[in-house]
Amino acid sequence: MRVLSFFLVALTAFSAAEGCKCIIAGRSDPTGTRVCCDNQGVRGRFQFGDDCAASSISGSLSAFSTCCRGYGSSRGGGRSDCNCPAGC
Fold first, then answer.
1. Which of 27, 28, 44, 47 has its CA nearest to residue 36?
2. Which range of residues forms the domain containing residue 53?
3. What's the chain's Rg over C-alpha atoms?
4. What is the per-residue pLDDT across 72-88, written as a single tens digit (0 to 9) for each?
5. Which of 12, 30, 31, 40 has the most CB atoms in a 10 Å sphere around its CB?
6. Which segments of the chain have a pLDDT < 70?
7. 57 near 12, Cβ under 8 Å?
């Protein structure tokens, strides 16, 4: 089971090589991405002005997604553009 989980996390990280973004109201939101990348439960590496390095949050994709949803809740809806291995 751990091997499968690791494989899914690695696959997700590599499929989003540029990184993960918060999508707020249908558009990439660099501020939300930075906030969620720096979030206590995520502690990712913000890069390229609008990405959170997928490799730096591979174990925290669910927390990143939850943060994007929360950040965007009063701004027209939010989500992460990275999929979680077990769903979010």
1. 44
2. 2-80
3. 12
4. 999 889 999 998 776 66
5. 12
6. 1-17, 86-88
7. no
Is residue 88 included in any domain, yes or no? no
Per the document, the length of the chain is: 88
21 is a domain residue: yes
- Going from the C-alpha of 47 to that of each of 13, 56, 65, 72, 74, the distances in angstroms are 15, 11, 17, 20, 25
Tell me the angle at which helices 30-37 and 61-72 cross, rounded to the nearest 10 degrees. Answer: 130
Residues 6+ apart with CB under 8 A from 52: 19, 20, 21, 33, 34, 36, 37, 42, 44, 45, 46, 64
